[in-house]
Amino acid sequence: AQSVAQPEDQVNVAEGNPLTVKCTYSVSGNPYLFWYVQYPNRGLQFLLKYITGDNLVKGSYGFEAEFNKSQTSFHLKKPSALVSDSALYFCAVRDLSNDYKLSFGAGTTVTVRA
Amino acid sequence: GAVVSQHPSRVICKSGTSVKIECRSLDFQATTMFWYRQFPKQSLMLMATSNEGSKATYEQGVEKDKFLINHASLTLSTLTVTSAHPEDSSFYICSARDPWRENTEAFFGQGTRLTVV
User: Fold this and answer.
1) Mind giving me the DSSP string for B33-56?
2) Chain B residues 14-53 with CB within 8 Å of chain A
3) pLDDT higher than 90, residue B23
4) Residue among B43, B97, B108 minimizing CB distance to A100
5) What does the pLDDT read at residue A21?
6) How close B82 comes to chain A (CA, Å)?
7) pLDDT tens for each residue of A6-60
8) How far does the CA of residue B106 sit from the closest CA of chain A (Å)?
9) Core-most of A29, A65, A110, B73, by most CB within 10 Å?
10) Closest residue in A to B49 (Cα–Cα)
């Protein structure tokens, strides 16, 4: 079965500093990986995905993620964080036994202080 | 990107009553939709997979008689919480994926905050 792990419950950074949110995955076969962001009392917004191709994936709002097969990681990054990036971030992997299912990590709360 | 609309965004109901939540795909037809439940500051738990024209597939531990799912059309799935109790209070989120777009991501509704009093 596919799964993802987000080792950090919380990440705190100062505005303007780089932001990294970690994610590792476990899959049999090729991974389909996603990052979503959730603001309070809202649904999930898609940020970016890795299906195949370049290991560095660029997404919405200046975010990017690097797929690292040897380390089975898919860390989310932003070079310069904004206060408005404060939210809950989820890494997810598609269940290859069911093309539509997603398995989510536990989530990482990002707080960017001014 | 594709749009998924969920309604209502917030509902308060009395214990013992039933509540219906709607999930619509606005600009694509979704043969499959998913219903999730999320507790405060926790991850999303998949409750069931809603299949257009057939019975929903429930995850282990989810009571199918309590959480009724109907997917009567290619753009609408409904989740009905029957005989609601305070422990059913939670944030419910639906998602859908355009089956005609290869390797596309799932799109999520805005979520419904259910409070049972």
Assistant:
1) EEEEEE-TT--EEEEEEEETTS--
2) 32, 34, 41-44, 46, 49
3) yes
4) B97
5) 98
6) 23
7) 999 999 999 999 999 999 999 888 888 999 999 988 889 999 999 888 999 999 9
8) 8
9) A65
10) A101
